[in-house]
From TrEMBL, chains A, B:
GO molecular function, one term: DNA binding
HTH arsR-type domain: residues covered: 13-106
Protein name: Transcriptional regulator, ArsR family
SMART domains: HTH_ARSR (SM00418)
Keywords assigned by UniProt, alphabetized: DNA-binding, Transcription, Transcription regulation
One Pfam family cited in the UniProt record for this chain: HTH_20
The keyword DNA-binding belongs to this UniProt entry's keyword annotation: yes
Length: 115, 115
């Protein structure tokens, strides 16, 4: 199977009703992944190479996979680009207000301690 | 140094102002640790052997340490017993309403999927 098809077939996403809170908490408990989510809250969809994070591509791919498998982000292929979006409606439908509570707490956190 | 003193010296707790959101999210992202926290929300302080969790003592000690070092729980020695309490005031002072939001979301979660 060509590499591009293997990559495409790896883009699995849980249904909204299957999003698990502990997976979401785990996905958010990392500074790079938190930066990805905060960036997406400000902008609906971004190409994968455009996030303001300073990690190796393979590490970034890992972080995207954790977020995707937890149901936090949706990714789609478009030719040679992979686009990433926040599943805000799905998350809010499942856990109303929770993502905003966590992101707001993180802003408080970032203002009080170096992070 | 006697074993009891070594154990006692290991009970370090972060100051309330140093509680880090990502550490808290990581600490809560586990079913055993979530059960400990939910149990403590219903009861101010419990002896360590009395939590409704089915894990080996060494595993439980690990989970308590993760929660303690994240600032989620406080532990104290009293003779041969170790007592555990939720740092609800410290957490609410640092991240108002967040713990309740997460625990409420977990109730929703538990009602919708097996967890």
């Amino acid at each position: 199977m060509p590499r591009s098809q293997r990559r495409r077939s790896a883009l699995t996403h849980p249904d909204a009703a299957e999003i698990d809170l502990l997976d979401v908490l785990h996905a958010l408990a990392d500074p790079t992944r938190m930066t990805i989510v905060r960036t997406l809250r400000a902008e609906p969809e971004r190409a994968c190479g455009t996030f303001p994070v300073d990690v190796a591509p393979s590490t970034l791919t890992h972080h995207f996979r954790v977020l995707r498998e937890a149901g936090v982000i949706h990714q789609r292929e478009d030719g040679n680009r992979r686009w990433t979006a926040l599943r805000l409606a799905d998350l809010d439908g499942r856990f109303p207000g929770l993502l905003d509570s966590i992101l707001d707490a993180y802003e408080t956190n970032a203002g009080a301690v170096a992070s």
